């Protein structure tokens, strides 16, 4: 299948179990001249966070809405197509988001894993759900939901007007907030445009 969880031009191979070893050997043999090597799941995590691809267990949970997660494009809100939860999303859109998932970059190479505090203008406004190192951009990347401490909506102006820091083990590191992943924000690489 033409599918990628890491945001690169690629394929996912679905083969019967008895064919797994022969297919693996054939792929590794054919790829040897291109420098193909095995990569582990941590590589998948690092690549997917750079692209802004969401993980169900971390970035997305049952209590997160597609609007809060920046996934409104997955809903049919611009059409008349009915779907379960449509009214709730329309109400949330009209009232404004009370929290919003943001991407943060930290220039310092500091390991982060999740649950680090997100500071905005000297106040804690949320915590990191998932973090990893982005090798293509040479920065620490983190995703977390923020709230307005006053209880108001988390508008784009609110996001853009803040000074951010991420706290790891009592030390704060200056951070930059992004609404989209800073690496390939237009998702061109998965379409073969490098």
UniProtKB/TrEMBL annotation:
Residues 1-78 form the GCVT N-terminal domain. SUPFAM superfamilies: Aminomethyltransferase beta-barrel domain, Folate-binding domain. Gene3D superfamilies: Aminomethyltransferase beta-barrel domains, Probable tRNA modification gtpase trme, domain 1. Pfam families: GCV_T (PF01571), GCV_T_C (PF08669). Residues 99-183 form the Aminomethyltransferase C-terminal domain. GO terms for cellular component: mitochondrion. This is Sarcosine dehydrogenase, mitochondrial-like. It comes from Leptonychotes weddellii. Belongs to the GcvT family.
